[in-house]
Amino acid sequence: MPYYIQMDTRGRSREKVTRRDFIAASALGAIGAAVPGETRAADPSPAPNTAGGAALGKGKIGDMEIGRLILGTNIITCHMHQRDLWYLKDLSRQYNTDAKILETFAVAEANGVNAFMTHDEPRVLGLLKEHRDKHGGKMRHFVAPEPKAKEAADFMEVVQRLVDGGASGIYVHGAAVDPLVANGNVKRVGEFVDIIRATGLPAGMACHNLDSLKACLAAKIECDFYLKTFHHLKYPSCPTPEELAADKSDFYRTHRCQERPHGIWCINPEETAACMANIKQPWIAYKVMAAGAILPKDAFKFAFDNGADFILAGMFDFQVAEDARLASAAHLAARDRARPWCA
């Protein structure tokens, strides 16, 4: 049976507990905790705290209450953006054993992170099912069919399997949306969204390129939630404005997920914020740390201050509690932002 090491407030180990005891203790902590802060009509009250700091607030996607910080998948599924650090994927693969992934789900829930966004990866979806069925977990999950499902019939088959697997929502993968739009096939994106919506689950769409989002909006493709990359450009490895302007290959505007040594996923954050200001459905900002180049405190503040309703972040188990605390602080501080909370 996997064990957890309970930590005191300074990070020192105290005692070893089982997963069952860990989840039970977390639930009792949630029941007994006070709810700080005031209630605002446009921004639902924070949930009871399970980690000793400010409680992580919640918003709604469909009729589901989701923590403002959502657990991302790349670290867990080893699709990490490693730039030229070629050992990172192997390191993540060695660290994130099945037991460690189960532990990550449990720690996430204990800190108010009650949703996981991933792609159609059988191993991880199986572990999530084990977390719920065998260990009493309540983690919701939003999942995207792999981009290789390019035809409507193939996409429909995968979507039905994901629905049968208990998905809470389904979205079209950014690595599918961007190429489809770039190749003039916006209509196919709309077909995929309609296939998802026909299941009755919340239907979403992700993109890295703002032009992809604009094209889909112009085509009247409406989703229940949107995922858009969003980060500022003030970090050392970010290309300079001159480098962006000089590039003639459209490299920065075309999603080439495994070929981004310069480490940029949102080339126009101001324009992105302005576009999202006109969208009334929930916005989940992702790549907010530029795949590890921006500190969470800075990244989370920038995302919430500039209109995001939720933040999607890849996290190792030992990062979850601190990231939840930082996300809670950034959420509570974002009171004067221009875009109203849409979830």
Task: Compose a concise summary of this entry.
The protein is α/β, with parallel strands linked by helices and 343 residues long.
Account of the protein in words:
The chain has 343 residues and is of the alpha/beta class. The chain has helices at residues 19-32, 74-77, 88-95, 98-110, 122-135, 152-164, 174-182, 186-197, 210-218, 241-246, 269-276, 296-305, 320-333, and strands at residues 3-7, 13-18, 58-61, 64-67, 69-71, 115-119, 140-144, 169-172, 203-207, 225-229, 283-286, 310-313. The longest helix has 14 residues, at 19-32.
Q: Examine the secondary-structure arrangement and name the CATH architecture.
A: Alpha-Beta Barrel
Low-confidence stretches: 1-15, 22-52, 254-261
How many distinct beta strands? 12
Rough shape? globular
CATH top level is: Alpha Beta
Structural class: alpha/beta
The topology string of helices and strands comes to EEHEEEHHHEHEHEHHEHEHHEHEH
Mean pLDDT: 83
- The separation of the N and C termini measures 38 Å
**Helix percentage:** 25-40%
CATH domain fold name: TIM Barrel
Which radius of gyration do the C-alpha atoms yield? 19 Å
> Any idea what the CATH superfamily is called?
NADP-dependent oxidoreductase domain
Strand proportion, as a percent range, falls in 15-25%
Largest sheet: 8 strands, parallel
Helical segment tally?
Answer: 13
Topology summary:
Elements: E1 3-7, E2 13-18, H1 19-32, E3 58-61, E4 64-67, E5 69-71, H2 74-77, H3 88-95, H4 98-110, E6 115-119, H5 122-135, E7 140-144, H6 152-164, E8 169-172, H7 174-182, H8 186-197, E9 203-207, H9 210-218, E10 225-229, H10 241-246, H11 269-276, E11 283-286, H12 296-305, E12 310-313, H13 320-333
Parallel strand pairs: 5-12, 6-7, 7-8, 8-9, 9-10, 10-11, 11-12
Antiparallel strand pairs: 1-2, 3-4
Helix pairs in contact: 1-4, 4-5, 6-8, 7-9, 12-13
